[in-house]
Amino acid sequence: MGGGARELAGYLAALAGWMAALAAAVLPQWRQSSYAGDAIITAVGLHEGLWMSCAAQSTGQVQCRLHDSLLSLEVHIQTSRALMVISLLLGFFGIIMSVVGMKCTKVGEEDPVTKSRIAVAGGVLFVLSGLCTLAAVSLYATQVTYEFFRESTIPINARYEFGSALFVGWGAASLSMLGGSLLCCSWPAKERRGQQYHRQSQPSAAREYV
């Protein structure tokens, strides 16, 4: 795969990962009611996310309510919120820098070495964005797992399990890190060596001409 094709593939994968991370951040299905056990004790399915909680009735009606207070939320929710916001910001700046640095764009094409370095910087931002998404989703999933398996008087079919947003988040983190890694392969090693050789050869050539 050529350098330009690799950059384009990495950019598309990272962009898809950023969009998936945005979807995961706003979805309310970070955890949902568990239907494990012998019997279902309620006809209402509960979903909770970083920003709101929803109740889906068996008739198909869904009611959602935003979390009332930021400071009253549990620590893992606040931490996951912060990590997802940081991830989206890093990914946003990674999108801008990658567009500027890719070989298939016309911006800054008079200096290909600097252009490639900008693409690498965009790839690093995408990798960091993916790591933040991975940390947020894994932290939330760890808390859900702990609450599900800990000893409690709450019936198992009244507890919570993984929601679909967690799997979207894991997929988003994988795509972002994969795309960022491909963009990081744009480091202009050969071009840098050629430029250094050209600069070193110019003075000697000038002396021979004199």
TrEMBL record:
Gene3D superfamilies, sorted: 1.20.140.150
Pfam families associated with the record: PMP22_Claudin
Subcellular location: Cell junction, Tight junction; Cell membrane
PROSITE patterns found in the cross-reference section: CLAUDIN (PS01346)
Protein's UniProt keywords contain Cell membrane: yes
GO cellular component, one term: plasma membrane
Membrane protein topology class: Multi-pass membrane protein
Residues passing through the membrane, by range: 82-100, 120-142, 162-189
Signal peptide start and end residues: none
GO molecular function: structural molecule activity
Keyword terms: Cell junction, Cell membrane, Membrane, Tight junction, Transmembrane, Transmembrane helix
Similarity comment text for this entry: Belongs to the claudin family.
Function: Claudins function as major constituents of the tight junction complexes that regulate the permeability of epithelia.
Name of the protein: Claudin
Recorded name of the encoding gene: Cldn19_1
